[in-house]
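Hi V.,

Quick status before I head out on leave. The structure for the redesign project is tokenized and pasted below; the design run finished overnight.
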């Protein structure tokens, strides 16, 4: 995960702490946080709605986030590709995971992030980041949105899917 964190930091140099926590959460839990009982109709409706409001698109199709997951970026005017993402996303959401193992993995990867912050390999304010991590932990591992900075600069529109389904 260290390499994944550094790759993303290099690709997205304005990442904030919440963006790193989101990446680690997705690496640990995959896409299951979006809906308890996913069905293709809900997935399709939400994806079409998101595509209709997209201002810009990523130049990437697939981006590795480690631990057997990837981010598949959404693009306009590629209906076949979107149908495939929808199918892979649905399969991934229904893939069983161990909550206990995912939580342990999440905490372990946050410790790796803290090491990178402490050594200033990821150049975010250390003390402020530690306070934010402490506050985040009060609620336990949970999904977060990308920071406003990340949203404005990088326009993230993707779905997390299990690499094994690709």
């Amino acid at each position: 995960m260290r390499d994944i964190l550094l790759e993303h930091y290099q690709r997205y140099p304005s990442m904030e702490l919440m963006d790193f926590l989101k990446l680690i959460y997705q690496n640990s839990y995959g896409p299951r946080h979006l809906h308890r009982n996913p069905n293709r109709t809900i997935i399709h409706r939400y994806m079409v709605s998101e595509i209709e409001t997209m201002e810009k698109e990523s130049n990437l199709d697939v981006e590795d986030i480690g631990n057997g997951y990837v981010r598949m970026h959404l693009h306009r005017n590629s209906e076949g590709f979107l149908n495939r993402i929808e199918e892979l996303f649905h399969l991934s959401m229904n893939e069983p995971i161990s909550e206990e193992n995912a939580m342990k993995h999440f905490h372990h990867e946050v410790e790796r992030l803290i090491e990178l912050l402490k050594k200033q390999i990821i150049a975010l304010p250390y003390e402020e980041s530690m306070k934010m991590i402490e506050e985040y932990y009060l609620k336990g591992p949970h999904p977060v949105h990308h920071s406003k900075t990340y949203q404005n600069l990088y326009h993230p529109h993707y779905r997390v899917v299990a690499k094994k389904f690709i």
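Above is the designed sequence. The chain has one domain: 2-165.

G. will cover questions while I'm gone.

Best,
W.
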